[in-house]
Structures are given as structure tokens and as C-alpha cells.
């Protein structure tokens, strides 16, 4: 069931680098702002602490900070005449998609 | 006893004394004299510094699959006079563990189809096999194709040149397999070989941090603040693995317990 939250002036879809700048500017201009992120809650400690954050296989190659496509995938095509196919996920780091 | 399980036995013996003593026995034992066996025996005798006998057990591959993979990865990253190749680095154990776990089972893959056999490479992996099934299926079919074309010999019995021809045939799709496009398997094997050779040793490959020593990669250091104002000095720190960090933390913890400060 949908949860109704308190209305705000601006909603940022995704709280990345751009949203952080936007949020700061909007808040400084006196607007109330909410940024939406999906996925589990992550904190600097312990989720990004050393030495685990140096695990390149886990993060750079296996993309474990990215959306898990077994939960929700997307389909795509490169040209209008192609059939869109799902992103199945990376079988290997050399895969181009 | 085949060379693969003998090698495992040697490594799991663990004790340096045992590892040093056994190779003499290996060379004295009756042997079929194969190249692979000689290499395995020497790998085991030289392994005392690179492995403590942990992590040399196979969780997924059977012995023959492991012999195929070990021979193939050592052609993809062969040794040279200075540095060990993928075999010495334990890449087989990296791949084996990956396939035995979530990666092998396709835990983070979307496996509901549709499976379009005509999908172009730009649309990525579109096979119904999670990695462990891709390996098992492809290895069986490649071994059969090699036996058909090479007097009933197995891949690992071929000379390095002929192995390279087989691998090139897989890479370019010249060797047709029944169930799997051979270039897809080749790409996966090459990628996993590179991962195993260069990933943190905690994952089972990159033994003795051989790949990091070779390229001068420092590993999992987090702090360089103390080095910022040091100029014109060679960076000569030993590489640091995640497992090394954990071991240091455990040792520090142990010290605290002993001194009663915790």
C-alpha cells in the first residue's frame, strides 16, 4: 500500500552528485527538499569503510552497489528495428553491456 | 593417482616440512611422465611460500574439468622467466569458488528469458545458463570436440601450440559447440582468468600477490597521508591484501585480549 508522506517543495529522484548540488541550492533558497534513493540503507560506516571498500572485484567488476537485475531488470535495444532484450547481468567483466 | 589430486594432497599437507619432503617422493614414484604431471609436481614443491594449504580444495569442478580449466588458463596467462602464470597463481581455485557460490548460480542475473539465439553482442549475455552451467556444458562439449579432432587426446595433453589453436578456435567461433556459442564461453573464461589473476588473494587466486608484485599495485591500503610530502622516493611497500588486513586486525585483537585491555 502506498505511504503518503508530508508534501515538500522539491523531490529529487536519485540522490547522486547532481542531486546533492541541486538539493543544496534549493534548500539555501528556502525550499523543502526530499531526495529519493532506492535499495537498502547504506552508511559510510560500515558500508564504505576500509578495507572492504577496496574490493575491486565486488564493486567495480561485479557491480554490487548497482541495482540487482534479478530483482528488477530493464530491457533495451540499440536501433528501432531491433527487439528489446533484458539486461541479464554481467557474466563477465569483458561484457560490453 | 592422477596429478591433480596428488597436487591437492601436497598442498593440503600444509606443513612446510611435508611439502619439502614429498616432491622427492613424487619424482621417485612411477609416473606416466606427462608434462602436466612434471609441472604439477614442481608447482607443488615451489608452493611453500605461496600457499599454506588452505583453499586448494575444489568445490565445483570435478577433476577432469579442473585439469581442462587449469591448462587453459595457463595458456591465457602463461608464466615467464620472472613471474608465475595463471596456474601458479591458483586461478583454478578462484574460478572454482566463484562457480560454487552465488556468481556461479547466477544469483544476480535476470534469468527469466526470452532467450534470443540471434541477439547481437551489443545486447550482452543472452544465454539461459548461469555461469556454472555455462562452464560445465561448454567444457564437456569442448573436450569431446578436442578428442574427436586430436586422436582421442584430452585438451590438457596437447602441446601449448595446439592448445592455443583450440583456444583461438573457441574465441573466433571456428569450433562449433552444440549448446553454447564458443566465443561466449571463451570470453567468460578469459574474463574470469583475468579476475582470478588480479583480484585480491582473499578470493583464492593471485597467490602470493604475484600479479600485484608484477605490476606494482599496492593493494588495499587506505591511508597515504604520511606519504604526501615525501618526494622522489621509490614506493617499495609490500602489497596488502584484504586477507592481510583481516589477519593484522585479528592479531591486534589478540594482543588486546592478552593484555587484558578489552
Could you outline the blueprint of secondary structure elements for this entry?
The complex is a heterodimer of chains A (97) and B (262).
Chain A: E1 10-13, H1 17-28, E2 33-36, H2 44-47, H3 56-61, E3 75-76, E4 85-86
Parallel strand pairs in A: 1-2
Antiparallel strand pairs in A: 3-4
Chain B: H1 3-13, H2 16-28, H3 35-45, H4 63-76, H5 91-100, H6 102-105, H7 131-149, H8 160-171, H9 182-198, H10 210-215, H11 242-259
Helix pairs in contact in B: 1-3, 2-3, 5-9, 7-9, 8-9
Kindly list the characteristics that best describe this protein:
heterodimer; A: 97 residues; alpha+beta; 4 strands; B: 262 residues; mainly alpha; 11 helices; 52% helix
In words, what does this structure look like?
The complex is a heterodimer of chains A (97) and B (262). Chain A is an alpha+beta fold and 97 residues long. Chain A has 2 domains: 8-37, no CATH class; 44-89, no CATH class. Chain A has 3 helices and 4 strands, in the order E-H-E-H-H-E-E. Chain A has helices at residues 17-28, 44-47, 56-61, and strands at 10-13, 33-36, 75-76, 85-86. In chain A, the strands form 2 sheets. In chain A, strands 1-2 form a two-stranded parallel sheet. Chain A is extended. Chain A starts with 9 loop residues before the first strand and ends in an 11-residue tail after the last strand. Chain B is mostly helical. The model of chain B is unreliable at 6-53 (pLDDT under 50). Chain B starts with a helix and ends with a helix. Chain B is built from 11 helices and no strands. Chain B has 3 domains: 1-51, no CATH class; 58-215, no CATH class; 225-259, no CATH class. The A-B interface holds A 50-52, 54-57, 61-62, 64, 68-70, 73, 76-78, 82-83, 85-97 and B 103, 106-112, 114, 116, 119-127, 131, 134, 184, 187-188, 190-192, 194-195, 199-200, 203, 219-222, 240, 242, 245.
Amino acid at each position: 500500500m502506498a505511504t503518503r508522506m508530508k508534501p515538500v517543495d522539491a523531490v529529487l529522484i536519485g540522490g547522486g552528485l547532481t542531486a546533492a548540488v541541486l538539493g543544496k541550492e534549493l534548500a539555501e533558497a528556502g525550499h523543502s527538499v526530499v531526495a529519493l534513493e532506492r535499495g537498502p540503507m547504506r552508511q559510510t560506516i560500515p558500508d564504505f569503510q576500509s578495507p572492504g571498500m577496496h574490493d575491486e572485484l565486488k564493486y567495480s567488476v561485479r557491480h554490487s552497489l548497482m541495482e540487482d537485475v534479478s530483482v528488477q531488470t530493464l530491457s533495451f535495444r540499440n536501433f528501432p528495428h531491433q527487439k528489446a532484450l533484458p539486461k541479464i547481468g554481467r557474466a563477465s567483466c569483458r561484457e560490453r553491456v | 593417482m592422477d596429478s591433480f589430486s596428488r597436487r591437492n594432497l601436497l598442498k593440503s599437507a600444509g606443513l612446510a616440512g611435508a611439502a619439502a619432503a614429498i616432491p622427492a617422493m613424487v619424482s621417485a614414484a612411477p609416473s606416466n611422465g606427462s608434462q602436466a604431471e612434471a609441472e604439477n609436481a614442481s608447482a607443488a614443491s615451489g608452493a611453500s611460500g605461496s600457499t599454506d594449504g588452505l583453499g586448494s580444495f575444489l568445490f565445483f569442478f570435478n577433476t577432469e574439468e579442473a585439469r581442462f580449466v587449469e591448462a587453459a588458463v595457463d595458456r591465457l596467462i602463461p608464466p615467464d622467466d620472472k613471474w608465475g602464470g595463471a596456474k601458479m597463481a591458483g586461478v583454478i581455485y578462484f574460478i572454482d569458488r566463484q562457480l560454487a557460490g552465488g556468481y556461479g548460480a547466477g544469483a544476480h542475473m535476470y534469468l527469466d528469458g526470452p532467450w534470443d539465439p540471434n541477439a547481437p553482442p551489443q545486447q550482452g549475455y543472452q544465454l539461459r545458463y548461469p555461469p556454472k552451467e555455462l562452464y560445465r556444458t561448454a567444457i564437456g562439449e569442448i573436450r569431446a570436440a578436442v578428442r574427436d579432432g586430436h586422436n582421442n587426446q584430452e585438451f590438457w595433453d596437447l602441446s601449448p601450440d595446439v592448445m592455443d589453436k583450440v583456444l583461438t578456435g573457441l574465441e573466433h567461433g571456428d569450433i562449433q559447440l552444440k549448446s553454447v556459442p564458443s566465443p561466449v564461453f571463451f570470453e567468460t573464461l578469459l574474463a574470469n582468468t583475468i579476475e582470478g589473476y588480479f583480484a585480491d588473494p582473499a578470493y583464492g587466486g593471485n597467490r602470493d600477490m604475484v600479479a600485484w608484485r608484477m605490476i606494482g599495485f599496492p593493494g588495499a591500503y587506505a591511508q597515504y597521508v604520511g606519504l604526501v610530502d615525501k618526494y622522489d622516493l621509490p614506493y617499495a611497500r609490500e602489497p596488502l591484501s584484504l586477507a592481510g588486513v583481516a589477519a593484522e586486525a585479528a592479531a591486534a585483537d589478540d594482543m588486546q585480549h592478552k593484555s587484558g585491555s578489552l
